Amino acid sequence: MLKVGFSCAKNTLCAVNAVYLLVGVSLMAVAAYGKSFGIVWTLRIISVVMVVGVFLIFVSILGIIGALRQNQIVLFTYILAMALMFIFQFTASCFCLALRREQQEKLLSMSWEMMSNETRRSLEQQLDCCGVINSAVKQHVFHTDVNLCTAACKTTAHCFTCGDLMLQHAAETLSFLGGVGLFCSFSQLVTMWLAVRYRNQKNPQISSRTSS
Q1: What is the mean pLDDT of the chain?
Q2: Residue 120, pLDDT above cutoff 60
Q3: What global pTM score does this model have?
Q4: CA nearest 40: which of 148, 114, 142, 125?
Q5: For residues 174 and 180, what is the distance between their CA atoms, to the nearest angstrom?
């Protein structure tokens, strides 16, 4: 019975960390997708999510090694890293889900103003759009950008604003990242509890050798 419980905890811990490994890769892929649309200049949180993805991959590998070897030091390091990951990922996920469109537009406008003209023109050509947001407050900036725009769509006299394109992809990306991150955050609590129990269990093979 002891051997079955030990093996079950070991296999479960390995399986959960294998899932975390896939989630980490998925987070990096989705964040890279958002970055390819220029969202990284709008929402710095996506860069943070990429860091979380890399760290999650590292922690999951650490958990698999600790589960296979039942190394006390590795498992303890894994539990601490998972606790830090929970706090960080839970905060980032809540931020992703709570960020309203008005806040996204404000961040986008601030980021756009910090860009050089060369960066703006390059982004407009990449996304095939002109200007950022046609608002009453920043209308003079918008008209200046449209006049300087060199995107291909300008020849057709039908261009979307870069802000609309960015915010559309930002909403999709943030919803996915926030949902996946929040799910992983709560599952990490269960994983930490499982790792603590597994760390305190005795290996039945070692126990049988000692008793004999």
Answers
A1: 77
A2: yes
A3: 0.62
A4: 114
A5: 10
How far is 49 from 57, CA to CA, in rounded Å?
12
Contact criterion met (CB below 8 Å) for 132 and 109? yes
Whether 111 contacts 138, CB under 8 Å: no
> Residue ranges of the domains in the chain?
2-103+165-211
Cα 24 to Cα 18, 54, 81, 82, 148: the distances in Å are: 10, 6, 15, 13, 40
Checking if the pLDDT of 79 tops 80, the result is yes
Three-state SS letters, the chain? CHHHHHHHHHHHHHHHHHHHHHHHHHHHHHHHHHHHCCHHHHCCHHHHHHHHHHHHHHHHHHHHHHHHHCCHHHHHHHHHHHHHHHHHHHHHHHHHHHCCHHHHHHHHHHHHHHCCHHHHHHHHHHHCCCCCCCCCCCHHHHHHHHHHCCCHHHHHCCCCCHHHHHHHHHHHHHHHHHHHHHHHHHHHHHHHHHHHHHHHCCCHHHHHHHHC
pLDDT confidence bin for 44, thresholds 50/70/90:
low
Give the tens place of pLDDT for each residue, 124-167: 888 888 887 777 667 777 788 888 888 888 777 678 888 787 77
For helices 45-69 and 2-36, the axis angle rounded to 10 degrees is 160
